[in-house]
Write a structure and sequence with these properties.
It is built from 6 helices and 7 strands. It is an alpha/beta fold and 186 residues long. Helix 3 packs across helix 6. It is flat.
Amino acid sequence: MPLIAAVMSAASMEFSQLDRIAVTVGPGSFTGLRVGVAAARGIALATGKPAVGLTTLAALAAPFFEADENRSLLAVIDARHDQVYLQLFGPGGRSLIAPRLASRREAVRTAMASPTRIVGTAARLIEDAWPDNEQPPPLVSAVRAPDIVWIARLGAATIDLTAPARPLYLREADAHPQDAGILPRR
């Protein structure tokens, strides 16, 4: 919240001057998603402006369509445990495969189906898993995080302002409450 306040101050803007609040809803870390969505929804509630949720995968992909909208694009985020979160976009940014959790092997097969740019935190993992007997992936861009400018652009372009921003969880949390060793309450 201090960073958000500092950005608003540097822009010489009041929160009431915003048209809407854009936030990435995932996939990503459970805690990061909850904190980001809660902050966006809090600002939206306080200002009476809508909060718009965008997938992290779409935010990663967006700048690459401005450069080349004729190529398919596979956005991938490392989900650990030899898995990735992926979303496949066709030319022009049309979603062909909705965000989902997949094995690295499945992500490679998805990328091999057509000449595809691979972007995201797991782009190098996909490149490393590429079969030796195949042509190498055409374009690999290991982007660490979405560009905030593109999150703002996508948020501004969103037409549906009625759906609340909610975290997009594609798998169960790694952390679970402990069942053994629970002390009885007095």
